[in-house]
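Please produce the structure of this protein holding methionine sulfoxide.
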Amino acid sequence: MSHEIITNPDANKEQKYITLIPQVDSLISDETDLIANLANISAVLKETFSWWWVGFYIVRNRELVLGPFQGPLACTRIGFGKGVCGTAWQLKQTMVVDDVNTFDGHIACSSASQSEIVVPIMKNNEVIAILDIDSEHLNHFDKIDQDYLENLAQIIAELF
Ligand code: SME
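Below is the modeled complex.
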C-alpha cells in the first residue's frame, strides 16, 4: 500500500514531530517486513527534517551492522562501545553530541557531519538496533529531538 506523508515545511521542529510520528505509526502498521519499514522511516525522517544522514544500525553477533539509511555512504560495522553509536549501545542511552569533533572516538563516516544524535532501540531492556542521525551543523539536536525520537524508537522496537 502506498502512503503520503503530510508535513508542513513551515512548522517548527516540535510541530513536525507531532504531525509525523502518528503517520509513521500508521505507515508501519500496514507492513510486516522490518527492512521495508526501516527504509521508509529513514526516508520520511530525512525528507521532513533535511538532516545530513539518517539511518539504522542493527545488532548482529555483537556488532552494529548498517541497516536502511538515507544519506551518503556510511561505515558498515561498529563495535560495542565504539564511536557514538557503540557508546549509545553500551550505555543503553541516547547520545546527543553537539560537536562530533570533540567526542573521543567518534567515527567519521562523513567529514561533513558536525553534530549527531543516537537513540537506542530497546526490547526487553536490550539494545536491538540504534537510530543514528547526523547534521552538517553544530549543536543541531536538543531535548525536543531526544524526547520525540525516543518515542519513535519505542514504536520502532515493536517491529523487531
Ligand atoms: N558517527 C557514528 C558512525 C556512524 S555514521 O555517523 C553514519 C559514530 O561515531 O558512531
